[in-house]
Amino acid sequence: MSTFSIFLILIVIVAFLLIVVIMVQNPKGGGLSSSFGGGGSQQVGGVKQTSDFLDKSTWALATLLLILILLSNVTIINNRTGQDSKLLDENQVPVENTQPNDLPPVDQE
What we know:
single chain, mainly alpha, 0% strand
């Protein structure tokens, strides 16, 4: 398995986790934090910590996704250096005049 394949699998997993974390949140104060009830911001182990965890995990997953994408791009660039196409080396046939001879000439004005 190539390095790029490993990065691709990790990118898909992190993207899925990021989607899940974003879907659990609600920008109006609903979502997972509202299902536990209460509106006090002073609660210990309650709603406030849940929303803080979701916010921090969103930023962490988004940062991790960006880093993985950049690293996968570096592995693609490193894998391409020094590799030429085999089709260019084998059976090179010079291209000749490709216009058919049986067509009338085109009048240019």
